[in-house]
Amino acid sequence: xxxxxxxxxxxxxxxxxxxxxxxxxxxxxxxxxxxxxxxxxxxxxxxxxxxxxxxxxxxxxxxxxxxxxxxxxxxxxxxxxxxxxxxxxxxxxxxxxxxxxxxxxxxxxxxxxxxxxxxxxxxxxxxxxxxxxxxxxxxxxxxxxxxxxxxxxxxxxxxxxxxxxxxxxxxxxxxxxxxxxxxxxxxxxxxxxxxxxxxxxxxxxxxxxxxxxxxxxxxxxxxxxxxxxxxxxxxxxxxxxxxxxxxxxxxxxxxxxxxxxxxxxxxxxxxxxxxxxxxxxxxxxxxxxxxxxxxxxxxxxxxxxxxxx
Length: 309
What we know:
Layout: H1 3-18, H2 23-29, H3 39-49, H4 53-67, E1 69-70, H5 75-83, H6 88-102, E2 104-105, H7 107-120, E3 125-132, E4 147-154, E5 157-161, H8 163-167, E6 168-170, E7 174-176, E8 183-185, H9 187-190, E9 194-196, H10 210-214, E10 218-219, E11 227-231, E12 236-237, E13 245-252, E14 259-263, E15 266-268, E16 273-274, E17 278-284, E18 293-298, E19 301-308
Parallel strand pairs: 1-2, 12-19
Antiparallel strand pairs: 3-4, 3-9, 4-5, 5-8, 6-7, 10-19, 11-13, 13-17, 14-15, 14-18, 16-17, 18-19
């Protein structure tokens, strides 16, 4: 399976969701200037170029994820802006102007800039906060509010948007890689990595408990939309004296010749069995007695991470 094919597949599913092709929106927005003096001016440009709320929301997401870089340097300036809090509108305006000026942000900056532009476009939106799991060490831990994203209303229906995760990833430095999985994300998929402080903001009923969420594996995008691990669903694996082997069941329609795992830094290519619904293989935790993590790979892409105790 090639990465190009996977990206096309995800784009196609988003297009089917809305019944229209959004690539023309992206193409136009990617030719916009890389800087605007204010969120209002950017919103005016978007409002002039596009007709529907969906197109305008997509344009906003594409511009932000193309031009704003994640930076931990923005933590202290963000705290200072929050200290001066007067109301939600003033907060989004202050954050939006700073992000456009520095071209850097943490999650609060991404979500507040997005919110500010939505306000200028008269599109109902709100910033929501909650927990986002990013590392196998997060598995099994109590939840803390460590992330911010958005809910936008388009044609009387609410959608989830995470411009921070949509802009790229962090691996010692910011890696720019726009990901449309986080544009109007299916609630059941975002719930695998995001747990809002207010459960209603998951747009999912019923929502799993906080404990259930805490013990989920770490799922890596964009594969989670097209590849499912049916077993084990608990992200905490135990190395026991009499039993340390786990049977993994993967459900997918995709063809893949290479499925492997990394256990504590050791790469293993296990025997793979093709099933009616996908693939199965076994992982013996004794492959590395000191390992504290297990990463499953589908082709060259990381699929899911587990914590070992």
